[in-house]
Amino acid sequence: MPKSTMYNLGITIEELSKSRTMIQGFNVGGQHAIGVIRAKLVINNLSAFSMFYVIDVKTFYKPLLGWA
Fold it and tell me: 41: phi > 0 → left, psi -120 to 50 → alpha, else beta; which?
């Protein structure tokens, strides 16, 4: 999850759990995750919690948040 999306969701850096995970990008470069957050996903009548690694990167896409 990009850091900008994390802020748009109202999550702060202080809420992240520490992580030593290296995220490999499509450009074959890698960067360490800032942290990890557990968030609830809801799709129609299905809901589940998932772990998201937060990275400081600009993306060319935006996830659909809160769209019905």
Answer: beta
